[in-house]
Amino acid sequence: MDDTRGLAISVEGVTLVVDLDDTLIHTDMLLETFWAAISVRWLNIIPAMRALFKGKAAFKRALEEMGTVSPELLPYNQEVIRYIEDWRSRGGRTALVSASDQRVVEKIASHLELFDEVCGSDGVRNLKGPNKAAHLNDTYGKGGFVYIGDAEADLDIWRDAACAVTVDVSASLAARVDDQAARVEHLTTRGSRLKPLIKAMRPHQWLKNVLVFLPMMAAHQFNLVTIGQAMLGFVVFSLVASSVYLLNDLLDLAADRVHPRKRLRPFASGDLPLLWGTLIAPTLLIVGFALALLLNLQFVGVMLFYYAVTTAYSFWLKRELIVDICTLAGLYTLRIIAGGVATGIPLSVWLLAFSIFFFLSLAAMKRQAELKASQAAGQRKAHGRGYQTTDLPLIANMAVSSGYVSVLVMALYLNTDAVSGLYSNPAPLWGICLVLLYWLSRMVMISHRGWMHDDPVVFAARDRISIICALFIFGFAVLGALW
User: Fold this and answer.
1) What values do phi and psi take at 161, rounded to 5?
2) Whole-Å CA distances, 482 to 37, 421, 424
């Protein structure tokens, strides 16, 4: 941004009026308060919908009362703030006028201490579009204000402003403002939203969904039909999982913004509009279930159960001590069950037992990493979780013990007749147990030292030693099958 922008406008007798949503802040307070209210208590959606029948202003007031948002955590548009500071440094008056609820606007204005006047929707009148234009004309007179906004609803306001200042508007809207306003400035403070959208969908987390291929691989069934079924199952799981990730991020806005790394997530940082997540999450879910119908109804049932559990996890289970770890382990194992249902391959009790203990270890590592990050930040407990940093030794013991039990289950499985029928020489498979013992021990040690990413699976996918271990495991499996 050119730091000389706005300086040529005389501040004498003119008030700089600033919009709030997607202008002063890189988010929308209607959706902020909506998701804050839902995250506190999902049943809040019922009184919120009742308030909506009374009008948008009443809806906003109800959400403000149910979903408190901390002004200091919001993603502010620093370019707009610098514009305001330049205006004030030359003696100009400023006003924050928004369609958001008056209480919300006052809290933000009080936090920033940049505005002489504040006005928002009052629970009866929704201060947007023509209502806002009439208010500004009555208060300052036509041509008595400069207006900074971002939406098509602001066209009537820009038309009567001494100068129209747009923030991150589309090319078509910018052209309309140029045609209708006497003087225009365009501020561009955001880049493309495609990259943040892809990041929010977390395609790197789709690595977990390769577990749907495990029943096929364990049973050595590699025909085209089975591979196609497993591939479709992978796609369905990825779409539904991304829908869940979007929902979880919307519900976790406050917790993510105080986290050293999660604060950079697209919604928490303001890089991606909350509206996008609100619309795309159900779209991905619908497409995923439509594709699931191409497999069989049993697979659809598994996906319904997966979505129900993950939704319960987002709203409630993640805050419950130990229950959250068990739930995460179960969701990993559910991917294996989905793979068996999609391909029609019966699942071995040994495979399920190994999975439960192995993924319980990974889930405990995930909590261990989060607690270690909280400890490093000087916090006594993990935000939005039921754990305290003093729980670290116990969580580490859970990760180690359950990991070692999973290796024991595999060792016992290697002595069964089923293995002899699948592998010409099972002896090399014992090397897998040794590699897993080393890898699990190293991962717990890395978590203990605070070097772990929030998710062990993501960390392992980028860790050179973990990749080498995976290659050794694959090599031992091939030797057992072919040697």
Assistant:
1) -85, 155
2) 58, 13, 7
Paired tokens of 461:
């996918």
Secondary structure letter of residue 126 according to DSSP: -
Radius of gyration of the chain (CA): 27
Secondary structure element (H or E) that encloses residue 396, with its range: helix 392-413
- Measured between alpha carbons, how far is 17 from 140 in angstroms, rounded to an integer? 10
* Total residues found in the chain within this entry: 483
Cβ(270)–Cβ(190) under 8 Å?
no
The string of pLDDT tens digits covering residues 116-165 is 999 999 989 999 999 999 999 999 999 999 999 999 999 999 999 999 99
Give the tens place of pLDDT for each residue, 258-281: 887 889 999 999 999 999 999 999
* Ramachandran bin of 259, using left for φ above 0, alpha for ψ from -120 to 50, beta for the remaining angles: beta
Q: What is the dihedral of CA 7, 8, 12, 14, to 10 degrees?
A: -80
Among candidate residues 137, 110, 146, 118, the one with its CA nearest the CA of residue 15: 146
pTM for this structure? 0.84
Q: Please give the helix or strand (H or E) that residue 79 lies within, else none.
A: helix 78-89
| Domains in the chain, CATH or no CATH each | 15-187 (3.40.50.1000), 194-482 (1.10.357.140)
Which phi and psi angles does 185 have, rounded to 5°? -130, 135
| Angle at the Cα of 326 from the Cα atoms of 325 and 327, rounded to 5 degrees | 90
Residues 6+ apart with CB under 8 A from 253: 32, 35, 36, 39, 267, 268
Helix (H) and strand (E) counts in the chain: 22, 6
Kind and range of the H or E run holding 40 = helix 29-40
Distance CA 221, CA 260 (A): 45
Residues 483, 478: Cα–Cα separation, whole Å: 8
CA dist., res. 231 & res. 228, Å (int): 5
Task: State the CB neighbour count (10 A cutoff) for residue 52.
Answer: 14
